[in-house]
Write a structure and sequence with these properties.
Two copies of one chain form a homodimer.
Chain A lengths: L23 H25 L2 H8 L3 H8 L2 H16 L16 H15 L3 H13 L8 H24 L10 H21 L6 H13 L5
Helix pairs in contact in A: 1-2, 1-4, 1-6, 2-3, 5-9, 6-8, 7-8, 8-9
Chain A binds a DNA duplex (30 and 30 nucleotides) through helix 1 and helix 3.
DNA sequence: TCAGATTTCCACCATATGGTGGAGATTGGG
DNA sequence: CCCAATCTCCACCATATGGTGGAAATCTGA
């Protein structure tokens, strides 16, 4: 009987502070597997990634991955969960807060900082980009995760945009705040893909900042 | 000895009007293969697509694909070439023309029409999106094609933007026309991906039109 | 019509895939 | 220090993959 201890988080309930499970060695192995899996999913997508390929990179047998995560889909979800816990949660105003409670300049700075940091981790950017494109397919395993993730970012932005419009800092343009925010999110993604395809041709953080300032009616610092 | 008659176009030299090669039946088969291959590449990406899967959809043996196209990569390039010939070339001002020679309103209308038509062919959009994201990897087989393709569109747009700026229809904003054009191209791509992931949430053609009019300084019709 | 070119399929190959089952080594709380 | 829990690998499986070689059917220009 297999252990199938994989704690494939439901993509929303974070178990960061749960008691450590298993032995230290096993947890370490799981971490390196997730890291290598992220690279592979990024470069080859879900369908193009093989358990054996990841295992080779991680220096373990492929059956070890199965032991730790159950199956390929669960591994993908573990990668996404790991990415999320590492890159978004920590530096974005919590979505549960009142949207307008965060100063817009702080929002802009936070997002631009994220974009700037993404430049140092092209693999992770490509992970989400590749999966986002693949997940246009209706039953892609990463689809719910990506939908929820993009909506979370969109809603934060939409809240800020709405607040700025009410305050008269930026004028209505016929779009809802949600639509305007969705455009920013989509453009950001597109800029990252474009940047990967045409290195050093555009400056993603700078262009994102322009877009954010325009849509939020915030003058350059 | 295999025939290997595949005319894998070098992605730029179009042989549209070359003399027909092979028999009519063979050409018809090739066409349906390309169509089914496009769907598969769109839904599963390059790595996730199998020759046998395409063959099954096309109602032929998988070795027939090999006979006609040589190998999987050549088939991908054939699909891209076909897509290009069908969707971009015919309704965009030829890149070889003087950029400013085309009225900007016509350019806007043409691109918006393309975006509107893309809505009817989500598979093809996803094909290019998935490949673009995958092709962030340096040695992806579709990379040169996609780079050249996006640059072509960018250059057309950049020419129009430059002309409009010279004419004073839109003011300088510190970016080069190429950069401004690249942002539009990137945003367009991003909007399409976002749309596939969140059906009926945004209106891609309308948003593209807004973006184009803003960057080109063209009032709404 | 008919012969050469072309198309198509079948059988086959080496390799790779995700996943299973179990044996042996390692770990660490009691 | 011990022993159950955990970890890791090996051998294996059914299936699928891209690609080859050849034989039969089909097509078409002369």
């Amino acid at each position: 009987m297999h252990c199938r201890s994989a704690r494939y988080a439901p993509a929303v309930a974070s178990d960061t502070d749960a008691v450590a499970v298993g032995y230290a060695k096993g947890r370490a192995t799981k971490d390196t597997i997730v890291a290598r899996a992220a690279e592979s999913f990024a470069q080859r997508g879900f369908h193009g990634t093989t358990l054996r390929g990841i295992a080779r990179e991680a220096g373990v047998d492929h059956s070890t991955l199965v032991h730790h995560f159950g199956d390929k889909t669960a591994l993908l979800l573990a990668v996404l969960d790991w990415y999320d816990r590492m890159h978004l949660t920590e530096e974005l105003p919590d979505a549960s807060e009142m949207p307008a409670s965060v100063p817009v300049t702080q929002l802009v700075d936070g997002l631009v900082a994220t974009a700037r940091r993404n430049r140092e981790a092209p693999g992770l950017v490509q992970l989400l980009s590749t999966l986002s494109a693949e997940a246009g397919e209706a039953d892609h395993p990463a689809r719910p995760f990506l939908q929820q993730r993009q909506h979370q970012l969109r809603d934060i932005l939409a809240g800020a945009i709405r607040a700025q419009r009410v305050a008269g800092a930026v004028d209505e343009d016929g779009t809802t705040p949600e639509q305007a925010a969705a455009v920013v999110v989509a453009s950001w993604e597109g800029l990252q893909v474009y940047d990967a395809l045409h290195p050093d041709e555009i400056d993603v953080p700078a262009l994102l900042e322009r877009e954010l300032r325009r849509v939020l009616g915030v003058a350059a610092s």
